[in-house]
Design a protein that fits this description.
- The chain is an all-alpha fold.
- It has two helices and no strands.
- It has one domain.
- The radius of gyration is 15 Å and the shape is elongated.
Length: about 55
């Protein structure tokens, strides 16, 4: 199983809860998902920088 970042895991869990009607998709949920997507972009950026730094050594 591939490693999954926390923002991706949380977004998938929220999507599953929406699909099973545990929670409703509303403005608050969309705001949370948007913030998770922003966080995921930041995580990917940090991972890329770490990989670049590792390759330079």
């Amino acid at each position: 199983m591939p490693k999954m970042s926390l923002p991706v895991a949380l977004r998938m869990a929220l999507k599953q809860h929406v699909m099973s009607s545990d929670i409703q998709e509303d403005d608050e949920l969309r705001g949370i998902v948007d913030k998770l997507e922003d966080l995921q972009e930041k995580v990917e950026k940090v991972k890329r920088k770490a990989l670049e730094n590792r390759q330079r050594r």
